[in-house]
């Protein structure tokens, strides 16, 4: 708990410092590393990301299409990361199974599903006409 307390006091104290800001990036990369090492759904999203990027290169997406694709990818990866944070926090606050804890986790997972479906729909609008024309 000391490390968490010292992080909080380092980053939330009133004075601005570049060292403190740089340290906050270290913590953020630690979170991303955790996602990469432990979260299977994150791996699935990254695999789909790779396939979408390859398809986008092969189908020569426009700048605007790339912007939508990048936004959709970021949305899904961020949603999955928030979902994991909610799950981790719920497990700390309510370690034994309970209906309320399960509902919280379900809501967070539902948010990821909404983001993933939105991203898929964006992908359909961008890729379907190009694939259709290619066929």
Note down, in words, how this protein is organized:
By secondary structure, this protein is mainly α. It has 2 domains: 38 residues; 95 residues, Helix Hairpins. It has 5 helices and no strands.
Topology, element by element:
Blueprint: H1 2-12, H2 18-38, H3 40-58, H4 63-93, H5 99-134
Helix pairs in contact: 3-4, 4-5
Quick structural summary:
By secondary structure, the chain is mainly alpha-helical.
Which features would summarize this protein structure in a list?
mainly alpha; Helix Hairpins; globular; 135 residues; 2 domains
Outline type: globular
**The CATH topology of the largest domain:** Helix Hairpins
Please count the beta strands (DSSP E, at least 2 residues each).
0
Task: Please report which band the strand proportion falls in: under 5%, 5-15%, 15-25%, 25-35%, 35-45% or over 45%.
Answer: under 5%
The separation of the N and C termini measures 59 Å
Mean pLDDT figure? 92
* CATH architecture classification name of the largest domain: Orthogonal Bundle
Helix/strand class: mainly alpha
| Proportion of helical residues | over 70%
Provide the succession of SSEs.
HHHHH
Number of domains: 2
Look at the structure and give the CATH class of the largest domain.
Mainly Alpha
What is the count of DSSP helices, taking H or I runs of 4+ residues? 5
Q: What oligomeric state do these chains adopt?
A: single chain
> Which regions contain 5 or more consecutive residues with pLDDT less than 50?
none
For the largest beta-sheet, the strand count, sense and barrel status come to:
none
Radius of gyration: 19 Å
């Amino acid at each position: 708990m000391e490390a968490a307390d010292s992080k909080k006091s380092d980053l939330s104290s009133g004075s601005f410092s570049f060292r403190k800001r740089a340290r906050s990036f270290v913590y953020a990369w630690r979170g991303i590393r955790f996602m990469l090492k432990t979260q299977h759904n994150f791996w699935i999203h990254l695999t789909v990301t790779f396939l979408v990027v390859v398809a986008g290169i092969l189908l020569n997406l426009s700048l605007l299409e790339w912007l939508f694709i990048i936004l959709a990818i970021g949305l899904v990866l961020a949603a999955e990361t928030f979902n994991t944070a909610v799950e981790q926090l719920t497990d700390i606050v309510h370690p034994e199974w309970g209906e309320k804890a399960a509902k919280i986790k379900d809501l967070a997972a539902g948010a990821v599903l909404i983001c993933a479906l939105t991203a898929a729909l964006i992908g359909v609008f961008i890729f379907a006409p190009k694939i259709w024309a290619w066929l």
